[in-house]
Design goal:
With about 220 residues, the protein is an alpha/beta fold. It contains seven helices and eight strands; from the N terminus they run βαβαβαβαββαβαβα. The protein has helices at about 15-25, 45-55, 75-80, 95-105, 150-165, 180-185, 205-215, and strands at about 1-5, 30-35, 60-65, 85-90, 110-115, 130-135, 170-175, 190-195. Helix 2 (about 45-55) runs parallel beside helix 3. It is globular, with a radius of gyration of 16 Å. The termini are close together. The chain binds D-xylitol-5-phosphate and zinc ion. D-xylitol-5-phosphate binds near residues 6, 64, 142, 193 and 197.
Amino acid sequence: MMIAPSLLSADFSNLRDEIALIENSGAKWLHLDIMDGHFVPNITFGPDLIKKIRPHSKLFFDCHLMIEHPEKYINDFKKAGVDLISVQVETCVHLDRVLSQIKEQGMMTGVVLNPSTPLSSIEWVLDKVHLVLIMTVNPGFGGQKFIHSMINKIMDLKMMIINKNVDVLIQVDGGVCLDNAKLIKDAGADILVAGSAVFGAEDISKAYIDLEKAIK
Ligand code: DX5
Ligand code: ZN
């Protein structure tokens, strides 16, 4: 069980220091939210920024693509130093092919579902992914409210993974906070993404450590 702080809520004028803060607090993963202003209404950053921060951190770079035509950019993110790429199932007509492309580039694979997207959409790629990310807000912005009905979706995914006898991690992203972290863990999640609850806090280290305590 682990927390992956999302850089989206960090102070971008002070990235190096803020990344060091979570790394020194014990974080192992850094969640990188890539938005294109088409698939989601917001625009964030791309491979160039990741390439700049890569030499300053040993964290595992977990890259969440919220972009149309992700297949065009897999190689750029690989070159930037990303360790895992998750693609939104809604952006991939040929999901199986895109996952193979990520794997062939030597990265770990993930697939993401919007709150309204059914689990059946990923049933036949479950043997090709290292993680499934359940969105618990509609992607696009940090600081939104957790959609409570997603607890059942996480539990259903856990059952699906057990029934198919595959080794797949469950990641949860959106609205994770001190009040709901334990509930999400108990539903079956392995990795909790937290943006505003960590990087958005006054004291980033304390927020990370408190959230860790809440899930233990
Ligand atoms: C939302 C992003 C999230 C975001 C989460 O579209 O995918 O990773 O950073 O932010 P919080 O934790 O504030 O909901
Ligand atoms: Zn994300």
